[in-house]
């Protein structure tokens, strides 16, 4: 139900303007829907890989897959902050994280393995890679960020959609989740001692990843080495 004030404002709008507003609303919904479909396409690809590993291999590198679609308010806020022209074309070209997929793995080597398997697919086009595992952010944040373009096939034809994929270990994900909660609680004005504690915790998480990777290789061996051995034997 509209408030009296909103109803009075609506009553002052002429029919043509109202139709233009409805058209803009419908176009905006279609625009956001494409990102949702693009996100679903990437999730399907990753889910197929996870199921195939469960069925055909003795080890599955994918622990968890999650996703999120930015709200329209968040998109508008980012447009304002970055000075993006208010057009769908400019938004598509400039804002690359409207649709996001996160893959959580057990080990660092798994993150790179999933990345290689995903980008090797023919209909995936890699636009940008930010390797915060090899080069962590100053605060210790680690993750492999991959901006990809995937085709979404609709009744109007194929539409390329940009999706951000983040691939990280369980330890990295736990740290990032904690950092997000702390920044939210303090409205991004985090006391320095907490920032220092987060940076120290990031180092601890990285050391844990290294130790767990070493233990994993001691138990299961190096999967890449095994693959090379199998190829050599076949040859």
TrEMBL record:
One matching Pfam family: RelA_SpoT
Domain RelA/SpoT: 67-190
Signal peptide per UniProt: none
CDD domains in the record: NT_Rel-Spo_like
Name of this chain's protein: GTP pyrophosphokinase family protein
Organism: Agromyces soli
Lineage: Bacteria, Bacillati, Actinomycetota, Actinomycetes, Micrococcales
């Amino acid at each position: 139900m509209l408030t009296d004030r909103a109803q009075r404002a609506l009553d002052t709008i002429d029919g043509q303007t109202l139709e233009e507003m409805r058209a803009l609303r419908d176009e905006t919904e279609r625009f956001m829907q494409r990102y949702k479909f693009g996100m679903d396409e990437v999730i399907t690809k990753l889910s197929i890989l996870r199921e195939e590993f469960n069925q055909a291999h003795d080890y599955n590198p994918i622990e968890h897959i999650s996703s999120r679609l930015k709200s329209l308010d968040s998109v508008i806020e980012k447009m304002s902050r970055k000075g993006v022209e208010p057009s769908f074309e400019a938004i598509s070209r400039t804002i690359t994280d409207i649709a996001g997929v996160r893959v959580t793995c057990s080990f660092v080597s798994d993150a790179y393995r999933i990345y290689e398997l995903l980008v090797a697919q023919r209909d995936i086009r890699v636009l940008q890679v930010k390797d915060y595992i090899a080069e962590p952010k100053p605060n210790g944040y680690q993750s492999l960020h991959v901006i990809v373009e995937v085709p979404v096939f609709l009744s109007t034809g194929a539409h390329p959609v940009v999706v951000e994929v983040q691939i990280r270990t369980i330890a990295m994900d736990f740290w990032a989740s904690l950092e997000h909660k702390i920044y939210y609680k303090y409205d991004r004005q985090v006391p320095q001692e907490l920032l220092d504690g987060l940076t120290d915790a990031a180092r601890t998480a990285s050391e844990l990843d290294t130790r767990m990777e070493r233990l994993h290789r001691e138990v299961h061996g190096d999967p890449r080495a095994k693959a090379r051995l199998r190829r050599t034997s076949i040859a």
